[in-house]
Design goal:
With 225 residues, this protein is mostly beta strands. Helices cover 0% and strands 50% of the residues. The protein starts with a strand and ends with a strand. This is CUB domain-containing protein. It comes from Ridgeia piscesae.
């Protein structure tokens, strides 16, 4: 399918279905997929979402959906490039309504550069692009968090980390790339989840490898300890 818009399965779908919809966007774009309805035989029939390629050998499956779900509770899915496909697999028993979904192409996510943030006493969050669907390949992202309250320190807590082998997230004690290293997290290893600065700022730097592997990271930050 080259034209963005709504697509859907047969309703009801047939037994022993193995249907596939391949979505292709313009070069240098990425795709967004949002389900509008889902109704399959629970745990037996399923809808699969694959991103990053035209075939199972080159793509990654990011979701298996089954049963009847409120479309508002199904996450929005993104591809790291201009390829995505959806599969409907059913057994030979109960057939239900199937699904409908809408897709569109967006400008490709590139390095976000530096994002400056202010820490307060209220917990705030940082998430990598497309979290928790996947971590994008080839990222070089920087967040600088500054404390402007009386405490003049920043606390960062890693709440989820899954960025794949060879990728890392580092936290430095200050706003410069050469500031002292407080912590470095790789893959899915979170040995020390809470990091506290000794200065009024921290610098987070995310480096990801060229292959997509993992769902990304999420952390919270506050002013003070």
């Amino acid at each position: 399918m080259m034209t963005p818009g709504v697509f859907q399965s047969a309703s009801p779908y047939k037994p022993n279905s193995a249907c596939r919809w391949t979505l292709v966007g313009a070069k240098r774009s990425r795709l967004q997929l949002k389900f509008k309805a889902l109704d399959t035989e629970n745990n037996l029939d399923e809808v699969q979402v694959w991103v990053g390629g035209k075939t199972e050998a080159t793509a990654k499956m990011v979701a298996r959906l089954s049963g009847t779900e409120d479309a508002n509770m199904i996450p929005v899915f993104y591809s790291p490039n201009n390829y995505m496909f959806v599969k409907l697999m059913s057994d030979n028993a109960v057939e239900k309504k199937g699904f409908s979904a809408e897709w569109k192409a967006q400008l490709s996510v590139k390095n976000a550069g530096r994002l400056d943030l202010i820490a307060t006493r209220t917990k705030q969050y940082i998430k990598s692009a497309l979290y928790p669907t996947m971590v994008l390949p080839g990222l070089r992202e920087v967040w600088v968090i500054r404390a402007e309250g009386l405490r003049k320190v920043v606390s960062v807590q890693i709440e989820d980390l899954d960025i794949g082998g060879g990728s890392y997230l580092e936290i430095r004690d200050g706003d410069k790339a050469a500031a002292p290293l407080l912590a470095k997290f790789e893959g899915s290893d979170v040995s020390t989840s809470i990091v506290v600065s000794t200065s009024d700022a921290v610098r987070l730097y995310l480096y990801t490898q060229q292959q997509f592997n993992g769902k990304g990271f999420k952390c919270s930050y506050v002013d003070g300890e």
